[in-house]
Structure formats: structure tokens, C-alpha cells
Amino acid sequence: MPVYEYKDLLLNIIEQDSEYFGYFEAAKEHKLVVKKCLDCDLLRGEPGASCPWCSSMRSEWHEVSGKGTIYSYQIIPHAILPGFRDWTPYPVVLVELDEQSGKPLEHDGLRITANLLDENMNPEHEENVAIGKRVNVVFQDMENGLTLPQFTLSDEEPAGAIWRYPNT
Amino acid sequence: MESALKDKYSIVGIGETDYTRGSGRSTRALAIEAIRNAVTDAGLKMQDIDGMLSYHGGDSVNSSTLAYDMGAQLNFYMDCSGGGSSTEALIGLAIGAIEAGMCETVAIFRSMNGYSQVRIGGTGSRASTPVSGPGLMTRPYGLASAVQSFAFSFTRHMMEYGVTSEDLARVKVAHSNHASNNPKALMKQRVTVDDVVNSRWIVRPCAHLLDCCLETDNATCIIVTSAERAKDLKQQPVYIRAVQGRGTKPGGDFHYQHGPISRVAGHYVGPRIFDLADLSHDDIDVTGCYDAFTYTVVLQFEAYGFCKEGEGKDYIKSGIVNLGDKRPNNTSGGHLCEAYTHGMNMVIENTRQLRGIVDDYCPDWQNGNHTYDYSEGGCRQVRNVNTTMNMGWASPATGSALILRR
What we know:
The structure holds two protein chains of two kinds. By secondary structure, chain A is mainly beta. Helices cover 5% and strands 36% of the residues of chain A.
């Protein structure tokens, strides 16, 4: 069944949607994957249809550690999607994975969007959300068979300074 | 490289409907009214329009439908998928179509019941559409609206450069002051920094309600033809000095894989438009900087080089963007206060500024007589406007620019 209901959304995850199908298939096995170019071996955070570095169309899904750092964040107190209203305020984070950080160019990284969840798979309290904090992937399994990769705060100390907007 | 078509084409007609929340009619009816107003403004007839360009997000009407209402036979038309930054790009495409001999006079329009029918961000009927493609990587995480899709860039920029809510609020304050002198503006009330930072949060930490533009029902139209032909028309021609875009950052929609994510497309569009125009920042008298959110203004002034990266907040705070100062921005009130039109109203406003007949509250504005008193309910005509610049925004990754002169 390729159409999954989740929070009043209909997610149409079909095999022909070839850039994204494998990402969600791997998630079902609790693996976080990115695309790896079979010609230049570079990984890419957006799966895409070809390698942005060497233009090869040959790629495979490559499992990564699921460890990373919050690169940016937002807290959504006003959900415009009706299914998210009981989750507000919820954090959405842009996570930079540990693999291939700062490569091949200085500002490059494998960056994945997800929610930051607590140990009960509820939205993390916003005072705990900050750029620079360490996170781990977790997998949110739904009864309908859908699994979403998500992130949770790690016990690891941040490598550098952390930042969140003061007084929010 | 300087453009070979510099000043060879003109904006000869501009028009819009009322800006409302609840038009009570179709985007077809709205479009026709805006086109009719622009045609009348230019001193043309509907049948003189032989080229049309529009942009939409599946929420508008096709040019070929309007051709019936206009009694027109079109030699060229395209209805393009697109949002912000399309206005400037389509002005460039209009020049291309005329230059290629495909048509003579192009009406560019945008028609949207942006409040009462299709709201940006996909509430209402769009919410039930199955999600596929790239949306699978964001929408299940509760990202849907424009500001949500831009917020990672905004938040990161706040961290890098110490931007505060108050810095952003000053953009809204400036534009609201300008809107108070615009009878057409949907929100004419002047606001304070406190009003903005005390309005409810939409996305923390980068957008309160009053940092966001006004969803509006409206249509707008801009008519482009050759400078040669413009000489015989009703209005003082406004010359298209140069146009550039839509251009993207490296990585396009997935620019955040590359970074710096707080840098926006104007970084790439800017040097090209100034080269094409053979002008510099000092030549620009008035700017129209796409204000979908207060933050888009801050980022674009930086990206286009009106100030250094990180100093957008200081550029705003200096007051330079206010009416009466050196280089006013969004003198109509822009998207934050006049109406959200996907960029059209800022080009229309700059055209009026260049003509010297801005429709403010001055008793004799129609004859170009202005008081230059910028207090509330007064004038919004800038003195001695020779050159204007528009900076269109679709996302952090996509933008376009336009320089006009009299």
C-alpha cells in the first residue's frame, strides 16, 4: 500500500518515486541512508537523480551512523497543517550528519530535515533545542507500516558552542 | 557584460484591482480588471495586446481563456508555474518574445484569490493532496508554509550575525509608515517595533505574525513594449535598463546541502544585473525588495551588496530605507502592508515613482504635484527618482532583479 496516512497527510511513497522510495524502505529496517555515487564515491544528503559532483546517475543507498549535529532549527507554535496542531509547539531541525561534513567544499554537509523528539517520541521541549547540540537518529514506527526517521538529543557533549535564540 | 538591449524596452502600462480579503469573484474576472486598467493606463485597447505572460501556482487563469474576454488574437502567450521573483523574469521574457518578433505588446499578469481560495502554504483543499517527491522529506515533519520552508536560513543567519526580533520589526515599521500614505494599502495603520514583537509567534525565532506579508485577493498587470513604440503611448515611458533571473544558488532548491545557508540567491543575481545595467548601487534611488517576510528584506539587501553580509539589520536601522531618506524601500508598503501580489506591486510602485505620479494623498497627485510631506496620510512620492531596482524572491535559493529608469 503506497499511500500512508500520517497526521492527516497522505504520503504517496511509491517505487517509481525513485529518489525517495529507498529512503523510507530503509527506514522500515531502522537504517538511515543517503545516496552514494558509484563513480566518485561522494555521499549526498538530498538523494536526487544524479551526482551533483560528477553527474553520474549510478548510485546506491548507503547506511550512515545517524549521528549528527543540529545545524539550524525552528519551533512551530502555529501549525498550518491541521494534523500537527496537537503537537505544537514542535521543533523541526536541520541535522548535519557526521559523515562527509565540510566536504567536498567548506560549507557542504549531509543535511536532513526531521523533528527533534524526546524519549517518548513526543516533540522535544523547545528550551532543549539549540544549534550545535548532538543528536542521534531514531525511528518512528507507525501502525500502518510507515516509518519516519527522526532525531533525538544525544548524551554526547557538543564539539563547540551551542546557540539558541535568547528568551524564547 | 553590459546588455545590448539596455533601455530599448519600456513598461507602458500598469494596473491592479482593489486589494481585498474576499474578492467574491473569479481569478478570471480579477485578471481582466487588472489588464483593462493597465491597457487604459497605457492608452491602448484590449485588442492591442498580442502577447501575454502570466505565472501561477495552479491557482489562476490561463491567458488563452482571457483572450476571449479581451476580444484579442494573441501571437504569443505562456502561463508559467512560478511564485515570487517571476515578475522580473517575465519582464525579461517579454523583451525576448518581442525581440524575436513573436509579438509587439505583452501584458504580464498575476491573478490570485490568495486569501479566499488558495492560501500559500497549502491549507484548505491543498492539505489533502497526496505528498510525493521532495515534499516527502519535509512535509511529514510539519513543514508546509513559506516561512517554515525558509526558516532554517533565517535562524542560522540570526545566530551568525546576532539579528534580533526588534531588528526584523524595523522592516515592518518602515513599510507600514509608507503604507499609511497609500490609499490602496490593505493595512494602512502605522505600527511600532513593540507591535511587531508582541504579535503572536508564527515561527520561532524568526517570524511573528506582523513579520509576515498579507495574504490578499488581487490581480495585477504590467504592459511591456519597445521603447520606440512607447513614445506614441499615453504615459511617460519607463525604460527597462536591465533584468536578471530567476537565478538560483548552487544546488537550487536543495541549497542547504551546500551553504552558507544564510546567503541567498541575490548573491549570484546581483553582480550580473549591475553589469548588465552598467550601473552601481549609488545609482539606485528607490528599491523594491520582496518582503514576503521581514527577513527576506534583510537577506536581500546583504546579498545584492547594498550592505555587507551580516549588516542588513544595520542598513534598515540606519533609516536609509525610509521615505525622505537616501534610498527608500517598498514605498507602497510592499507585501507586508500594501498587499501580497507575488512581486508585481513593487514593480508597479517603482514605475509610478519613476513617472512622478504616485497615487498618494496629495490633492493634485494626478498631475504630479506632491507635497513631499511624508507624515501619516500624506505623500509617498520620492523626489527626483531616476533609477529604481527590484529584488524578487522565491526562496533563499531563487531570486531575480530588475532595474528601471526614467
